[in-house]
Amino acid sequence: MKYKVMKKQKNSRKCIVCGMKNDLGLKASFYELENGELAAIFTPIEEHQSYPGRLHGGVAGAILDETIGRAINITDEDVWGVTVELNLKYHKPVALNEQLRVVGRITRDTRRLFEGTGEILLKNGDIAVSASGKYMKLPLSQIADFNEDTEEWRVLPSDEDPAEIEV
Ligand SMILES: CCCCCCCCCCCC(=O)SCCNC(=O)CCNC(=O)[C@H](O)C(C)(C)COP(=O)(O)OP(=O)(O)OC[C@H]1O[C@@H](n2cnc3c(N)ncnc32)[C@H](O)[C@@H]1OP(=O)(O)O
């Protein structure tokens, strides 16, 4: 199903997944959808391979980790969390140099923890990798010395931002 993009989330400077000034990073963009899920879009490059031509499973885990971890911000922009568990299932190989869609959602939200699931989708809609994760909520000051200005933590509008995404 295609869903309307309601909001683009912020990117950062050096995060391996969302850092726009990390030359080896995924430079993923995150979009909040009208159905309450979060979609990520990124294009893996050669540096993200395991076997030649195939996305590294750890990199697949990284994008799923962050997509689920950010899905909580759809309902509360100020919640931060650290991953305490991440389970992955690799169903199909993921090729490089092709744009990928990732989708994540929150399945449980308590005072201290939240949980969610997510999938990396191939161009034809097949699920290549699926994940479930658990996160502990923490004040940002307990996670990192994070200055939003120096970390360039902001929404970066782009002409390539989609109006809707099929997930
Ligand atoms: C650039 C910006 C991008 C922004 C993008 C944002 C997206 C986020 C996605 C990426 C997130 C990451 O990769 S984060 C990076 C990877 N993850 C981490 O680095 C986390 C490393 N782990 C830790 O720092 C620590 O284990 C903590 C802080 C999570 C917990 O430490 P602690 O508080 O000393 O631990 P402990 O006493 O054992 O546990 C506290 C309580 O939590 C419970 N607890 C602990 N672990 C679990 C668990 N897996 N499942 C259930 N419950 C648990 C315990 O039972 C206990 O309950 P009780 O006995 O008190 O009842």
The gist of it:
With 167 residues, this protein is mainly beta.
Give your account of this protein's structure.
The protein has 167 residues and is mainly β. The chain has one domain (2-151): Hotdog Thioesterase (Thiol Ester Dehydrase, Chain A, Roll), CATH 3.10.129. It is 11% helix and 36% strand. The protein has helices spanning 57-71, 140-143; strands at residues 2-8, 29-33, 38-42, 81-90, 100-109, 113-121, 127-137, 164-166. A hairpin with a 3-residue loop joins β5 and β6 (113-121). The longest helix has 15 residues, at 57-71. It starts with a strand and ends with a strand. Bound molecules: dodecyl-COA. Dodecyl-COA binds next to α1, β4 and β7. Belongs to the THEM4/THEM5 thioesterase family. One of its GO terms (biological process) is fatty acid metabolic process. It is a peripheral membrane protein. This is Acyl-coenzyme A thioesterase THEM4.
Could you name the key traits of this structure?
about 170 residues, mainly beta, Thiol Ester Dehydrase, Chain A, 8-stranded antiparallel β-sheet, 8 strands, binds dodecyl-COA
Q: How is this fold's topology laid out?
A:
Elements: E1 2-8, E2 29-33, E3 38-42, H1 57-71, E4 81-90, E5 100-109, E6 113-121, E7 127-137, H2 140-143, E8 164-166
Antiparallel strand pairs: 1-2, 1-8, 2-3, 3-5, 4-7, 5-6, 6-7
Question: How many domains is the backbone divided into?
Answer: 1
Taking Cα atoms only, what radius of gyration do you get, to the nearest Å? 15 Å
Strand order of the largest sheet: 4-7-6-5-3-2-1-8
Q: Describe the main β-sheet briefly.
A: 8 strands, antiparallel
- Strand fraction equals 35-45%
General shape: globular
Number of DSSP helical runs:
2
The small molecules bound here are: dodecyl-COA
Q: Might you state the CATH topology name?
A: Thiol Ester Dehydrase, Chain A
Mean pLDDT: 98
- What's the count of strands? 8
- Runs with pLDDT <50, length 5+? none
CATH architecture: Roll
Q: Structural class of the secondary structure composition? A: mainly beta
For the terminal residues, how far apart are their CA atoms? 6 Å
Tell me the CATH superfamily.
Hotdog Thioesterase
Kindly provide the name of the CATH class.
Answer: Alpha Beta
Helix content: 10-25%
What is the element string, with H for helices and E for strands?
A: EEEHEEEEHE
EC number: 3.1.2.2
Subcellular location: Cell projection, Ruffle membrane; Cytoplasm; Membrane
Membrane topology: Peripheral membrane protein
Catalytic activity: decanoyl-CoA + H2O = decanoate + CoA + H(+); tetradecanoyl-CoA + H2O = tetradecanoate + CoA + H(+); dodecanoyl-CoA + H2O = dodecanoate + CoA + H(+); (9Z)-octadecenoyl-CoA + H2O = (9Z)-octadecenoate + CoA + H(+)
